[in-house]
Each structure stands twice: as C-alpha cells, then as structure tokens.
Design brief:
This protein has about 375 residues and is α/β, with parallel strands linked by helices. It folds into three domains: about 200 residues, HUPs (Rossmann fold, 3-Layer(aba) Sandwich), CATH 3.40.50; about 80 residues, no CATH class; about 50 residues. About 45% of the residues lie in helices and about 5% in strands. The chain contains 13 helices and six strands. A six-stranded mixed beta sheet has the order 3-2-1-4-6-5. Strand 2, helix 4 and strand 3 form a beta-alpha-beta unit. It is globular. The chain starts with 14 loop residues before the first helix and ends with a helix.
C-alpha cells in the first residue's frame, strides 16, 4: 500500500522544497533510492515531466542519491511533435544537470504510424479480415501513440543501457488530469521490458511523484525552481503540451496549435489524412474544422467530400447484419445467404471509394471467405 510522505529521515529540508506539495512515494521506492537505483526521468518538454524532474532531483539530493546514477530520456515523435520541443527538452535537462538520451521509433514517426495504420486497415478490409473499415487515428481505447511511440521505445532502450540494475522511471502523470489517470498508483513494477525473474536480474519500476499535484502546483513549481515553459504555454496559450495535434486535445488547445505558424504544414498533412480516409481526427471533431482558413480550395473540397462519404459509410455499416459484428475470435458464425448478399452489397461502395479490389463480390465468395476465416480461427484455437 502506498505511503504518502515528505522527505523521510533527511537533513533539514530546504525552504524551496517545503514550498511545494509533498511528493507521492512509497517505501519500496524509498528503499530502492537509498540502495542507489538508476533514476530515469521521462521528459516530454511539458510542464509535468519538467516539474517532476526538478522536484525529484531536490529530493534525491537530500537522500544522498548520486547524480551520476540519474539521467533523462525523451521519445522524439518526429513531425507530430512541436518543432521547438527537442530544443526545449535539451535546455531543460541541461538546466537540471541531467544527461539526455533521445530515442525514436525505428519504423517512422507518429504521422507515419497513422498513415501506415490506415494502409493496413484498407488491406485488411479488402481481404475481408475486418467487418468494418478501420480508421487511421489512435484513440482513448487504442493509445498506440503512447504505447508504441513512447513506452515501447523508451523501455527497451533503458533496459539495454542498464542490464541487471534496479531502474526507476519517473513520469509526471497526475491524477487530476483525466478520468483515466485518476487511479494511477504512486508506483508500480514494470515487467513489460524486464520480466520478473529475468536472467540478467533487471528490475524496472514506474514512479509517479506528482500523482496528487494539481496543474496549479506544477506551474508554481516552475516559478519557484526557475524552470522554463514550452512556447505552447507561453506564446500560444495551450493548457498542456503533447503533440502539435493530440487526439485528446481540447478545441482550445487545437486552436492554440493552429495559431502557431510552424504547425501549419503538419496541420494540412493531417487534414489530408482525414480527407483520404474519411475518418475525423477525433471521434466528434474534424481537425479540418479547427482552422479552415489554413486549407487551400482543393483540400477544402476534399474534406467536404470526405464528410459526405463518412456519413454514407456509417449508414451502410450500421445496416449490416448486427450478429456478425466484430468480437474476439471473429467471425462468430457463417452468414446466411441473405446476410452474405447484404455484406457484399455494403462493401462495394466502400471498396470503390478507397480504390480497393472487390475480391468477394457475390454470395458464394462471401460464404467461402467466411468459411476460410472460421477455419483459421479454429486452427489457432487448437494450436
């Protein structure tokens, strides 16, 4: 069970640390720190990760933890990231006195990942491996923008750097940020990249020292500790820093990003993906509608068409046989002949819109394909 406390059994706490809320910590993290664990600050250039790095460094200094066993790491998201973010991260980590490692996804940046996701979705739809066409974007239920672009890049890199060591990754997550983060633990074991009992003996943990801080606490820490803020806050009025355009961003923050001229090119690139895919950037908001004045006439026309095609696709897919919608182990059964006819008819305009081959145009080909898919599922279950 987590224990909330200020600096335990330390010399006199400096006034600057006393002026900030207590860090959330538990006895296991304290023990690991005292034993000289590696401390890795995950920094994004945003207010929370920066405040966590500076506040925790003060705490670690009081505990006598060696600075040589601390570092910062940043996952570069490429075009999705504000152009000023790499320099901001470098400046902040230098001020903190932390060596910085920058890692990137080898298969491309986040924009590449969105593009590739839709290409894969079209291929799978053409092959009737999915019932409905899947869009390009990450979402609240599928956060590959975080899992693949950050955690899956940072975690293995850190495990390779410090094999056989105790590693604590410090993240600036706060419980009041969102409903999904309201229950984050103070700390937890991280077995994703160092399984329990691995032969090298590497032990990894995640620590959320700002779990109970508010946004106001974070901004006050920036003032007290002299931590510079990213231009997204100071020049463009954003309430948070993430990607230039985040799937979780409010309308206010999306507008703040479009107001920054360096973000215009990526804005039009993402709107272009909306137009080609017929899927809005957020479930209830087209990115194209945030700053339509930045779009040329051709792209504006493409978006008008995409919105109409989205409405038609949703109408068609809603009318498809409900009993055959995706579930684990799909497909659940063979369609009847009338259902197969409906499926073939529904797929035809969607395939045509995306210039895909209609490989299963008839009742017979639909039934044969479902039989193939069910046989594949049966073999996997038997394996």
């Amino acid at each position: 069970m987590a224990v909330y406390q200020s600096v335990p059994a330390c010399p006199a706490v400096p006034p600057i640390l006393s002026a900030m809320p207590n860090l959330a910590i538990d006895s296991e993290i304290i023990g690991a720190i005292r034993a000289g664990a590696r401390i890795v600050f995950n920094v994004s250039g945003g207010k929370d990760s920066s405040a966590a790095m500076f506040a925790v460094n003060l705490y670690l200094d009081l505990l006598g933890h060696p600075r040589a066993r601390r570092m910062a790491i940043h996952a570069d998201l490429g075009r999705a990231e504000w152009a000023s973010t790499p320099a901001t991260v470098a400046r902040i980590t230098a001020l903190a006195g932390m060596p910085l490692t920058v890692v990137r996804r080898a298969a491309g940046d986040l924009v590449d990942r969105w593009i590739q996701r839709f290409e894969n979705a079209k291929r799978r739809y053409e092959a009737l491996e999915t019932y409905n066409l899947i869009g390009p974007w990450s979402s609240a239920s599928l956060r590959f923008c975080q899992s693949e672009m950050k955690a899956a890049v940072i975690g293995p890199a850190v495990a390779r750097m410090f094999p056989g060591e105790r590693i604590i990754s410090v993240l600036g997550l706060r419980r009041d940020e969102s409903h999904n983060r309201s229950a984050i633990p103070v700390a937890k074991a991280d077995h994703r990249h160092a399984k329990a009992g691995n032969r090298r003996g590497t032990i990894m943990s995640l620590w959320h020292p700002l779990a109970d801080w508010t946004a106001g606490d974070v901004f006050r820490a920036h003032q007290l500790l002299g931590i510079p803020l990213h231009e997204a806050y100071t020049e463009w009025g954003s309430t948070r820093l993430s990607c230039r355009y985040c799937i979780f961003a409010s309308l206010h923050d999306l507008q703040a990003s479009t107001a920054a001229p360096p973000n215009g090119e990526v804005y039009r690139e993402l709107v272009g993906i909306e137009a080609r895919s017929t899927f809005p950037f957020q479930p209830t908001r087209w990115l194209a509608d945030v700053a339509p004045q930045l779009l040329g006439p051709a792209l504006h026309s493409d978006i008008v068409r995409a919105k109409a095609d989205q409405a038609e696709r949703r109408r068609i897919e809603a009318a498809m046989p409900a009993g055959l919608r995706y579930v684990a182990g799909w497909p659940p059964r063979l369609p009847s002949r009338p259902e197969a006819e409906d499926i073939a008819a529904a797929r035809r305009p969607i395939l045509a819109r995306h210039r895909l081959e209609d490989r299963y145009p008839s009742v017979t080909t639909i039934l044969d394909r479902f039989s193939e898919l069910m046989a594949i599922v049966a073999r996997k279950r038997a394996a």
